[in-house]
Amino acid sequence: MSVVLITGAASGIGAATAREAVRRGHRVALADIDLAGATRIAGQLGPAARAFELDIRDEAAWETALDAVADQLGPVEVLVNNAGIIHTGYARQLSPAEHRHMVEVNLLGPINGMLAALSRMRAQGHGHIVTVCSMSSFLPLPGYTTYGATKHGLRAFHHSVAIEEREGPVTFSIIHPPGTRTPMLDQEMADPSAVITFAEKPLTPEKVASVIVDAIVRKPVEIVHPAIGGRVQRVAGVFPRLMRFVIPKVAAMAKRRSTGLVPAPTAVPEQGDTHR
Ligand SMILES: NC(=O)c1ccc[n+]([C@@H]2O[C@H](COP(=O)([O-])OP(=O)(O)OC[C@H]3O[C@@H](n4cnc5c(N)ncnc54)[C@H](O)[C@@H]3O)[C@@H](O)[C@H]2O)c1
Questions:
Q1: What is the tens place of the pLDDT at every residue in 22-74?
Q2: What InterPro entries does the database record attribute to this sequence (predicted)?
Q3: Which phi-psi region, left, alpha or beta, contains residue 206 (left: φ > 0; alpha: ψ -120 to 50)?
Q4: DSSP assignment of 59-111, as one string?
Q5: Residue 18 CA, ligand 1 centroid: distance in Å
Q6: What is the pLDDT of residue 261?
Q7: 183 and 101 in contact (C-beta within 8 Å)?
């Protein structure tokens, strides 16, 4: 059983992963910028779980958190880099601060975490780093511009480090969940520009958590979900001309499917607007 640090553990996929990891016997550090939320979840999980305040954008805070976890639970053996945010809307509708916020949290945050954990794991002679990424790391999608860009970048960083460290003691897994019913998805539901997310039936956070905690033991290189559909999407993303043709059709289907789920499914931008 391992000491597992999970970022973004106050909510959604991170909270479900913390629950599942404790259920399977791990000691779990729930790290989040929302300390009250992480403390509430940890309080439900018993002595194997502790909450820690961590803003993943802050390099120094990573060292403080890793020291605190080592003191209270033991040295971190598994890092689940999960915390992430989204600002929905077309690129031109978002402020520079919103674009920057996504880059800082979704890309620089996990980079900070990987670098901080990697040197400690190398020194202790073992460790596993799990990156929670997104299917948008393969697909250019309207309404997910900078979010997708951060996930493309995160995937590139993750695999590049894993290749650099292939002879070392640290192992790496990356997981790409599809739409998952969390507060992040609720935020997307409230914005018609992000309607494409309803092309697929969302998963529960518990399902994604089970895949993540399995990865702690099995150490897969990369997981897409669903296995077949995910592979098709991964290949499709390589062909932008194909995407221009397919995406408006998928968005129209997703808009129909979202009726009844989205509070006010109005004003989905027109096709020509999408691909300027
Ligand atoms: N929900 C989905 O449909 C979906 C799909 C694919 C990938 N993902 C990815 O899964 C991960 C978790 O998403 P979720 O849906 O559970 O989101 P969520 O909004 O439910 O939870 C995100 C958590 O991250 C925390 N957080 C935000 N900024 C932080 C910071 N600077 N430092 C530390 N913690 C911070 C929040 O407080 C929150 O607890 C994200 O990386 C997301 O991109 C989500």
A1: 999 999 999 999 999 999 999 999 999 999 999 999 999 999 999 999 999 99
A2: NAD(P)-bd_dom_sf, Sc_DH/Rdtase_CS, SDR_fam
A3: alpha
A4: HHHHHHHHHHHHHHT-S--EEEE-------S-GGGS-HHHHHHHIIIIIIHHH
A5: 13
A6: 54
A7: no
CB of 51 closer than 6 A to ligand 1? no
Lowest mean pLDDT of 11-15, 99-103, 127-131, 137-141, name the range.
137-141
Q: Residue 186: enclosing H or E segment and its boundaries?
A: helix 183-189
Residue 48: closest CA among 87, 3, 82:
3
Is there an atom of ligand 1 within 6 Å of 43 CB? no
Q: Which residues are catalytic?
A: 147
| Choice from 34, 52, 85 to test ligand 1 binding pocket (greatest atom count within 8 A of CB) | 85
Instruction: Determine whether domain 3-274 maps to CATH 3.40.50.720.
Output: yes
For ligand 1, whether the C-beta of 8 sits within 6 Å is yes
Secondary structure of residue 128 in the 3-state scheme:
strand
Rounded to the nearest angstrom, the distance between the alpha carbon of 81 and the centre of ligand 1 is: 10
Please identify which residue in the block is written with the tokens 């016997």. 25
Q: Is 104 in the pocket of ligand 1 (CB under 6 A)?
A: no
| Amino acid identity at 86 | I
Q: Reduced to 3 states, what is the DSSP secondary structure of residue 267?
A: coil
Ligand 1 center–CA 13 separation, angstroms: 7
* Cβ–ligand 1 contact at 182 (below 6 Å): yes
CA of 84 to the centre of ligand 1 (A): 4
Give domain limits for the chain: 3-274
Q: Assess whether pLDDT exceeds 90 at residue 240.
A: no
User: What whole-number distance in Å separates Cα of residue 268 and Cα of residue 240?
Assistant: 21
206, pLDDT greater than 80: yes
